[in-house]
């Protein structure tokens, strides 16, 4: 059984026991979070729209952290203009504990 969950205009495939890295969420490690379900696939088939809205995905926050650093380098040719920046995107790792009807 798996579900497609939505968080911040992004969609993720969630299965019970899987760990998913979402964009940063508020909450401490160990806190429970719920996600709206867009689609559910189980032994009875696929449910979407109103049928899937009756489900919810519950997870537990495992980690709050930052991703690997990426380098952003901008320059203009023949002008001696250079700008180097680094960026580390914050994330929240969530372990999906259950996908069940509300």
What would you say this structure looks like, in words?
- The protein is mainly beta.
- Helix content is 5%, strand content 69%.
- The strands form two sheets. Strands 1, 2, 3, 4, 5, 6 and 9 form a seven-stranded antiparallel β-sheet that branches. Strands 7-8 form a two-stranded antiparallel sheet.
At a glance:
With 102 residues, the chain is mostly beta strands. The chain has one helix and nine strands.
List keywords for this structure.
102 residues, mainly beta, seven-stranded antiparallel β-sheet, two-stranded antiparallel sheet, 1 helix, 9 strands, 5% helix, 69% strand, elongated
Structural class: mainly beta
Distance linking N and C termini: 16 Å
Q: Using only CA atoms, what is the Rg?
A: 19 Å
Total number of domains: 1
- The run of helices and strands is EEEEEHEEEE
Sheet-strand content, in percent, reads over 45%
Classify the helix fraction into a percent range. under 10%
Average pLDDT? 95
Count of DSSP H/I helices: 1
Q: Shape, please? A: elongated
Tally of strands: 9
